[in-house]
Design a protein that fits this description.
It is globular, with a radius of gyration of 19 Å. It has two domains: 110 residues, Helix-hairpin-Helix base-excision DNA repair enzymes (C-terminal) (Endonuclease Iii, domain 2, Orthogonal Bundle); 102 residues, Hypothetical protein, domain 2 (Endonuclease III, domain 1). It is 58% helix and 0% strand. It is built from 13 helices and no strands. The protein has 243 residues and is mostly helical. It binds iron/sulfur cluster (SF4). The site of iron/sulfur cluster has 14 residues, from helix 12.
Length: 243
């Protein structure tokens, strides 16, 4: 949910680097919140996490992997049983189909192992650029900058990008940083988006980057306009549209 207009221009490089440096200090232990014990479990968890919280995925995967612990087992599973196990993650029919199909492909084409290249990962069912980036970064420590809804929103609010697509945001943000910091930057922006720079109404008064953020004034102006119209904050939060 985001009803706050994004800044129309990017901040300059010095400001962008200063913002990222503050976020790095604010989130020094940034890492994925998904619980996994192997590249296979991470891949399946990331596929399930689309349009779903990591916390919900973490509640779902223990039962899923207890029943289907390997690509061989999950690839041979009945779709209806997998649907039942992943139902709480949303879009469960499609996700069940994807994780069974991806598991079959891991067995048939990759010897039961998760491949460590973007091209191979993106050839699996349910795996797009974002999912492949997370798997490459987290499971294989390859530099990658995955753009999810939090990263897209926070990067725009900070003025790090004016990209209209995830690829555009990725291009703008990665151009600011050396490759070895791409993965950490992805985590800084996600954690900041979840904790403070939330979708419907960012909490700028708590934000360590507020003095450098071009959205702080936009947020204040938007909030003041709503107050003049007498829109209760809770109603504003409920009605704001998605990013
Ligand atoms: S100042 Fe406000 S809009 Fe800018 S990053 Fe912080 S919370 Fe988000």
């Amino acid at each position: 949910m985001n009803s706050i207009p994004f800044p129309k221009r990017r901040v300059n490089r010095a400001v962008a680097l200063a913002q990222l440096s503050i976020l790095e200090r604010a989130y020094p232990d940034a890492a994925t919140a998904l619980i996994y014990h192997s590249p296979f479990e991470l891949l399946i968890a990331v596929i399930l996490s689309a349009q779903c919280t990591d916390a919900r995925v973490n509640l779902t995967t223990p039962q899923l992997f207890a029943r289907y612990p390997t690509p061989q087992a999950l690839g041979a599973a009945h779709g209806a049983d997998v649907e039942r196990l992943v139902k709480s993650c949303g879009f469960y029919r499609m996700k069940a189909k994807h994780i069974v199909s991806a598991s079959r492909d891991l067995v048939k084409r990759f010897g039961g192992e998760v491949p460590a290249t973007r091209e191979a990962l993106e050839s699996l069912a349910g795996v797009g650029r974002k999912t492949a980036s997370v798997v490459l970064a987290v499971a294989f420590q390859e530099p990658a900058f995955a753009v999810d809804t939090h990263v897209f929103r926070v990067a725009h609010r900070l003025g790090l990008t004016t990209g209209t697509t995830p690829a555009g945001v990725e291009r703008d943000v990665t151009a600011l940083l050396p490759r070895e910091r791409w993965t950490a930057a992805h985590h800084w922006l996600i954690l900041h988006g979840r904790a403070i720079c939330k979708a419907p109404m960012p909490q700028c008064s708590r934000c360590p980057v507020s003095e450098l953020c071009p959205s702080a004034k936009i947020v204040a102006k938007t909030a003041a306009g709503r107050n003049r119209k007498g829109v209760p904050a809770a109603a504003v939060r409920r009605s704001a549209p998605h990013v």
